[in-house]
Design a protein that fits this description.
heterodimer; A: 383 residues; alpha/beta; seven-stranded mixed sheet; 15 strands; B: 275 residues; eight-stranded mixed sheet; 12 helices; 10 strands; 18% strand
Chain lengths: 383, 275
């Protein structure tokens, strides 16, 4: 590294978008392929400046979002930790390749700074409208990991988490931010990489002729060597056998898709991150994520001052949906409120896991304005 | 052991379930053979080759050969190849695409990869038709030709891959056919050793989907058509313009030596390393 090596954690005054870049670089990201789109462009601009100055960093502006994700997938196959960032319309364009990345099990991090939609929608206003698209946007059955971040410091840490999950589970990871989180400037602490847990994809230990790129393993995650390392394998979007060769045999198709689900499913405890605030004795619960969780945090504090036993679950992982935590809250509370800047994309999940013990209320805002603590507090007082 | 058998053992995947998916008379196997001979002749190690293919019949050739192989999504092979090349500039990244893949759905990526002059070797297997999808017209289907989506004849003009790639700014632009195999071997070798974006457009017959509908009675007729119409560039240029109609020039059209994108990028980064 040409720049002076940092020897201590440092404090910076950064945008959420810049915190994402700090997190990515700490996690070892060395490839960024992207296409500018509001409100995600600051991530790309910051990467354009930073990456070429790192040891082996590659930054490339591609011709569109499809090409961006394609380039990231290629670089991931070549052994790089890769990232791209986009927003609504770009996210839609990327969907086919997200499915491809799931199928070939390519680790990558995709940051979507959500804008209002559908279509060009509200380009510069906060929204949380891509939650279900992140889970189900591409075609076919697949598992995927979707994360979120509440504030600027959180942007850094959740980006590191996103890279770790993508490497650990050989899966694309989507980090959903909203415009408020990405464009808020706050003082944050940038830790040293050595003080963080940084994970790398498993490398094969067997001789190349024994290696099977999609082999069943105990964790369900096969090792993944970089292209050019002597382990020559075939990557295809077609349903494939453990060698990576296309197959239509029922037993091989079922085994391949089942393993791709299982590698995520059996580690729910590791992947599903939630932040609980005053939930132990809560009678009115709030489930929120992104910048809305910040409003909810204050609303819960204010409710407590008024003697209402309110509590908050801040979802850092959106998918796989943290059922255990939310179900616990639903069992404890008479009312659970789900405020979000969409027509009800996570409240749908909350209602799905409701064992019938409480009432689920929603607060939905789609006018491109934030949900205020006051708005949530009013709802808590009625609950 | 015959040389060809040795090459088969060395380059084709012994654990892949053969037979292949290509029809009798298809030219794609000839291109793959030519590619393997070229890599072998140049002494390039298998580990140093990444073969990225798109979707369709041409996309399937990647699975049979023992390189690092990627069967990408329709039209996006060049984007994946761009990622590999930028991440590992020392590797030979070869892209195999069909005509529809390269310049219909993938047209935007194609012109930009050529504009960037990134060091990819691109083989466009031009059979004028969507073969695997069932014989629909592509952006290379010649005017007036029949396909399942042009039952009254193609009304749109077709792309000239060579002119398109030249205009976009690629370093090496060439065209060959599967009938002129020795020339094709030479073109692929030149492309593999050329810095920057290198195109080899290969005219290859699809008898099943194109020939059958366009008055070619047998695969042999299509090869004879290639023999008759493909004219070496030097000879083509000497022809009177009125005699050029119906002939397709083959050979090397562009042979420039501009620095490739990865070379420019490395130079930019070297400045930081010094400072």
């Amino acid at each position: 590294m040409s720049a002076k090596r940092k020897t201590a954690a440092r404090e910076i005054f950064a945008l959420g978008a810049e915190a994402v870049v700090e997190g990515a670089l700490l996690a070892g990201c060395s490839f960024y392929g992207g296409y500018p789109i509001t409100p995600s462009s600051e991530i790309m601009e910051s990467m354009a400046e930073r990456l070429p100055r790192t040891e082996d960093g590659v930054f490339i502006q591609m011709e569109d979002e499809i090409a961006s994700l394609g380039a990231c997938i290629g670089a991931s196959l070549a052994g790089r930790k890769v990232m791209t960032a986009t927003s609504g319309p770009g996210f839609s364009l990327m969907q086919e390749l997200i499915g491809y990345a799931c199928m070939i099990e390519a680790p990558l991090v995709l940051v979507n700074v959500m804008r209002g939609g559908p279509s060009t929608g509200l380009p510069t206003s906060p929204a949380q409208g891509d939650v279900q698209q992140a889970r189900w946007g591409t075609h076919g059955d697949h598992s995927i990991i979707v994360l979120s971040a509440t504030d600027v410091q959180d942007c850094l840490h959740m980006t590191v988490k996103a890279f770790n999950f993508s490497e650990k589970y050989r899966s694309p990871v989507i980090l959903l931010l909203d415009e408020v989180t990405a464009h808020t400037r706050e003082k944050i602490t940038v830790p040293l990489a050595k003080d963080l847990e940084i994970l790398y994809r498993l490398q094969p230990s067997m001789p190349p002729e024994w290696y099977k790129p999609f082999e069943e393993t105990v964790r369900g995650v096969p090792p993944m060597p970089p292209i050019g390392s002597g382990y020559r394998f075939h990557a295809t979007g077609l349903t494939h056998d453990d060698h990576g060769y296309p197959t239509q045999k029922s037993d091989e198709v079922v085994a391949a898709i089942s393993r791709q689900f299982r590698k995520i499913d059996q580690f729910f405890f590791d992947i599903q991150i939630t932040d609980e605030f005053l939930t132990e004795d809560a009678e009115v619960g709030v489930v929120a994520y992104g910048s809305v969780a910040r409003s909810a945090h204050l609303a819960v504090e204010q409710a407590r001052e008024r003697g209402i036993k309110a509590g908050l679950i801040d979802l850092k992982t959106l998918f796989p949906f943290p059922r255990a935590a939310v179900e616990g809250l639903l069992r404890r509370c008479r009312t659970v409120i789900v405020p979000e800047m969409n027509m009800g994309q996570i409240s749908r999940e909350v209602k799905r896991v409701n064992p019938g013990t409480s009432t689920v209320w929603t607060i939905n805002r789609i006018d491109g304005h934030i949900i205020t603590p006051k708005q949530i507090l009013e709802s808590i007082r009625k609950g | 052991m015959a040389e060809v058998t040795q090459l088969i053992h060395e380059y084709l995947r012994h654990d892949k379930k053969f037979p292949h998916v290509l029809c009798p008379g298809c030219g794609h196997g000839i291109v793959l053979g030519s590619l393997i001979r070229s890599v072998h002749a140049l002494g390039i190690a298998k580990d140093d080759v990444a073969l990225v293919a798109g979707i369709g019949c041409s996309g399937r050739v990647a699975v049979y050969v023992d390189f690092n192989t990627v069967h990408a999504v329709h039209g996006r092979a060049l984007t994946v190849a761009t990622g590999i090349k930028m991440a590992k500039p020392e590797m030979h990244v070869i892209v195999v695409q069909g005509d529809g893949d390269a310049l219909s759905i993938g047209g935007n990526h194609f012109i930009h990869a050529a504009r960037r002059n990134i060091g990819l070797t691109v083989l466009v297997l031009n059979n004028f038709i969507y073969g695997m999808t069932g014989g629909q017209c592509s952006s290379a289907t010649p005017l007036g030709c029949w396909s399942t989506t042009t039952p009254y004849g193609q009304m749109e003009k077709s792309f000239d891959f060579v002119e398109m790639t030249r205009a976009a700014g690629a370093n090496f632009v060439s065209r060959g056919t599967v009938f002129h195999v020795k020339t094709l071997d030479k073109l692929i070798q030149q492309a593999l050793t050329h810095e920057g974006f290198s195109l080899v457009e290969v005219l290859t017959p699809c008898h099943t989907q194109f020939g059958r509908k366009n008055k070619f009675k047998s695969p042999v007729d299509m090869y004879q058509w290639l023999k008759k119409t493909a004219t070496p560039l030097e000879a083509y240029e000497k022809l009177d313009p009125d005699k050029r109609a119906g002939r397709i020039p083959i050979g090397v059209f562009v042979d420039n030596h501009e620095p490739a994108l990865e070379t420019r990028y490395a130079a930019m980064r070297a400045k930081f390393a010094k400072g």
